[in-house]
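Good morning C.,

I know you're traveling, so I'll keep this short. The sequence:
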Amino acid sequence: MEAVQQPVPKSRRKFWTPKRKEALIGWLFLAPEIVGMLLLNVFALGFSLYLSLSDWDMLSGVQGIEFTGLDNFIKMFHDPTIMQAIKNNLIYMVLTVPIPIAIALVLSVLIHNSVFFKSYFKVAFFIPYISSIIAVAAVWSALFHPSLGPINQFLMDIGISSPPKWLVDPKTSLLAISIISSWAGLGYTIIIYMAGLTNISNEIYEAADIDGASSIKKFFAITVPMLRPTTFFLLITMLIGSFKVFDIIAFLTEGGPNNSSTVLVFRIYEEGFKYYNMGYASAISWLLFAIIGMITALTWKMRNEE
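The tokens, ready to paste straight into the viewer:
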């Protein structure tokens, strides 16, 4: 009869079991990333919140930080340029999110169903997205030239005697920037939609063909509903991206003319790195964070209710 093996008493068990050693090695590999995240993200976030409640010109050193409470936030809500920046951000969001999504959806369906050499069109539409936004903006700046640009030359050729002045006109500067941004980002949206289209089974479309459904009916009854997760992903990422726009505005208009194209991120840059008012810049950044958070939460709520 075999001897029954007695369990090892807790006092004699080894602490460094193979499972714990494996877990320790895993944490050691993760440690640099965790430390970096704590230093660069958590600390920066907390320090930014403290600065938003302080007055600091950055040139006086850390010892020059003076706690002022909510003064920066009170000043911000009485600053007309901040209110104009919020308005411009909302207009830019409307121009660069729903309209490009709708255009990209239609183009992706056309390319997926009705076009030969699909790979060529994917690359052709995607090139502007991977190109430098400054290079793209420089090209469009020449196209939008008030008198010598090809766009206005074409408009005058078809009978429009006074075409828009685009980037130098307060009424059209934000529209011109929105057109450039939408054109540059269209390829990314098309690629994401085409990836989503490949996940829709052809059997669904074949069943609709048997029922005599038209192409438009299949688009609205099958394609659009089946692509809702893809559309929601694009909606969230593009909404957040629309409030982070900076480089194209800094290069083309610097927020002008007359603050007609200024946005919150550009105001943060101006206050923090042109006027060295880091406390006020931090307060604006927290306002931006709150707006993005509210819009994202509202979008998620609408999605969940649907």
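Safe travels,
E.
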